[in-house]
From TrEMBL:
Biased composition (Polar residues): 473-498
InterPro entries in the record: DNA_primase_C, DNA_primase_lsu_euk, DNA_primase_lsu_euk/arc
Transmembrane segments: none
Sequence similarity: Belongs to the eukaryotic-type primase large subunit family.
Record's function text: Regulatory subunit of the DNA primase complex and component of the DNA polymerase alpha complex (also known as the alpha DNA polymerase-primase complex) which play an essential role in the initiation of DNA synthesis. The primase subunit of the polymerase alpha complex initiates DNA synthesis by oligomerising short RNA primers on both leading and lagging strands.
GO process terms (BP): DNA replication initiation; DNA replication, synthesis of primer
Domain DNA primase large subunit C-terminal: 287-456
GO molecular function per UniProt: 4 iron, 4 sulfur cluster binding; DNA binding; metal ion binding
Protein's name in the database: DNA primase large subunit
Co-factor binding comment: Binds 1 [4Fe-4S] cluster.
């Protein structure tokens, strides 16, 4: 079957945005074959992008924890995380195909956010690989929630050219189906749908002997049908990213869009840490706390400050904001830094003149009076560092031999140091950090490390210095939607009424963009020219054989105003 040609994508008569999106997304499992052509405000674009990023990061964390997304346990864990993060609409899309109002709204967010992230993740091989891996996880998660009827609808709506065997066809090969379909009774097999495909389309099923083979064809049950679609979907993603890459130079003229895209992968979507909600931490306890409850990045800053009585700017910012967020007061902070610096080469006068201001600034008492958030792992990991610097993530910046020696000096066995360093040298810095936590606390983590202050909180809870927090129910949480965006943006002073810490990052990003770029969210629109006019006679079909034609994606239609 041929993929839809350009002529089918540019129908003549005009129709509205909603009709167009409903036509493009006929099913809860989307194939993202055709880019949408819509107007989006910068704010909507940011919110959609950050929401999807949260989803993809939840999937990444689940995979890092070795959770099988196809298992009930894995799915439940991911859904809990998504619900907790205010992403119920994505959970909805993973629970079968329905066409209620909420499904249609969820499909639109899913579709638009996917294409926005394509721009953010098309520029390097590393970003593309990350994006495709996560998108494939999301795709499989959604597909696994489909019933046999939903799969049939999927095939039909995307005009994929497959149809289940008729009862007579099934009867003809029933013995083969009984023998090759594991974990199902004969009664179940008789009520299941099977599809006949070329065996080359399902080599993974052939390899794992999960389908019946006859005369060059494989007979695949509806629940395994995802194998066929996943290959095609991955090809679509790869081609789509390449097509977006070719378009990047054109959109780079738009500073607003470029700024958002550049920062997206390193933007933090987790809990925000600005001030401690668990009381004050006296500076006299920092030596002891640093040994047990500081992650390696902060312990290194602390030890260097104690031994050399100085930290360069990057280290002062990274460590100073961390201290503020664990509960060190501004007065204590000033005393702590003053005592250390004046033990070295800095005079008291110089300290008051050159350093005290910055400490007060971090606490929001000077200059723009912003109460700055502590740095998250992504910000620390991606910071540029020189060999003389103290800031940055040791799991990334230290040579394996240095890391192993350091870990051994902290009391870890050679085998444990080797294991952690192995994760670090494969580029899994946060997993290495989580492993270090588990080994040094003799416990199992049920969440990944994404923030040094999260590490500190978890440690304090594990050692019994603090009671664990009871996760709040979702009833008071409020999720962002394109409908309420204008309200949200106009009330920028009212962050306390939003849905908790997780959304502070959205605020921060929007606020910082507003400051840096002078963007007025209400008035600026990104326009994706809508040359689509008139409702098409038929829906865009998805190819079963030719998936490599970039022209078919028609990404070139997407331009920034
Ligand atoms: S993974 Fe995060 S918390 Fe751990 S050392 Fe690196 S930056 Fe610090």
């Amino acid at each position: 079957m041929e993929f839809s040609r350009r002529s089918r994508l540019r129908p003549e008569a005009k129709f509205g945005l909603d009709s167009m999106l409903e036509w493009l997304i006929p099913h809860n499992v989307a194939l993202y074959a055709i880019p949408p052509m819509v107007d989006l405000s910068i704010t909507e674009l940011q919110l959609l992008a950050l929401e999807r990023l949260k989803v993809l990061r939840i999937l990444e964390q689940a995979t890092n924890k070795n959770l099988k997304l196809s298992s009930d346990e894995g799915r439940e864990s991911v859904f809990n995380e998504m619900n907790h993060a205010g992403l119920k609409h994505y959970v909805r899309l993973c629970q079968g195909n329905h066409s209620k109002e909420q499904d249609i709204a969820a499909r639109k967010k899913d579709y638009l956010s996917h294409f926005i992230l394509r721009f953010a993740y098309c520029s390097t091989e590393e970003l593309r690989r990350w994006f495709i891996t996560r998108e494939m996880e999301l795709f499989r998660l959604k597909f696994a929630g489909l019933s046999a009827q939903d799969v049939k609808d999927f095939v039909l709506k995307y005009e994929m050219g497959y149809s289940p065997l008729t009862p007579d066809q099934k009867n003809e090969i029933k013995d083969g189906l009984y023998d090759s379909t594991l974990y199902h009774s004969i009664v179940q097999i008789e009520s299941m749908d099977f599809y006949k495909v070329r065996f080359t389309e399902v080599l993974d099923l052939v390899r794992s002997r999960k389908c019946y083979l006859r005369t060059g064809f494989a007979y695949v049950g509806a629940s395994d049908f995802v194998s066929i679609i996943a290959n095609k979907h991955q090809q679509l993603l790869e081609d789509g990213l390449q097509a977006h890459l070719r378009l990047l130079p054109e959109i780079e003229n738009d500073e607003r869009f470029t700024m958002i895209l550049k920062e997206l992968h390193t933007s933090y979507t987790g809990k925000d840490y600005r001030v401690s909600k668990s009381g004050q931490v006296p500076i006299e306890s920092l030596d002891q706390l640093s040994k047990k409850s500081f992650p390696l990045c902060m312990r290194y800053c602390h030890d260097t400050l104690r031994s050399k009585h100085h930290l360069k700017h990057g280290g002062r910012m990274q460590y100073g904001l961390f201290l503020k967020a664990i509960g060190v007061t501004m007065e204590d902070s000033l005393r702590f830094w003053r005592e250390e610096f004046t033990r070295g080469t800095v005079t008291l006068e110089k300290f008051e003149k050159e350093y005290a201001y910055n400490i007060r600034h971090n606490y929001g008492k000077e200059g723009s009076r912003v109460n700055y958030a502590a740095y998250n792992c992504m910000k620390i990991i991606t910071a540029s560092v020189t060999p003389q610097d103290t800031h940055g993530c040791p799991f990334k910046n230290w040579e394996p031999s240095v890391l192993k020696t350091k870990l051994s000096s902290f009391g870890l066995s050679a085998a444990h140091a080797e294991e952690i360093s192995g994760f670090a040298s494969r580029g899994h810095y946060q997993i290495a950090c989580g492993k270090y936590f588990e080994i040094s606390h003799d416990t199992k983590l049920d969440e990944g490390i994404t923030h040094p202050n999260q590490y500190f909180d978890l440690s304090q809870i594990t050692v019994g210095a603090r009671a664990p927090k009871v996760k709040p129910q979702n009833q008071n949480r409020r999720t962002f939607s394109s409908q309420d965006t204008s309200h949200v943006v106009r009330n920028t002073q009212d962050t306390a009424t939003l849905n908790g810490d997780d959304d502070n990052e959205l605020w921060e990003l929007m606020e910082s963009n507003e400051k840096e770029g002078g963007v007025k969210h209400e008035s600026i629109l990104l326009e994706l020219p809508a040359s689509t006019q008139g409702k098409p006679a038929s829906r865009p079909a998805v190819p079963t054989s030719e998936w490599g034609d970039d022209e078919d994606f028609d990404v070139s239609q997407v331009e920034m105003a």
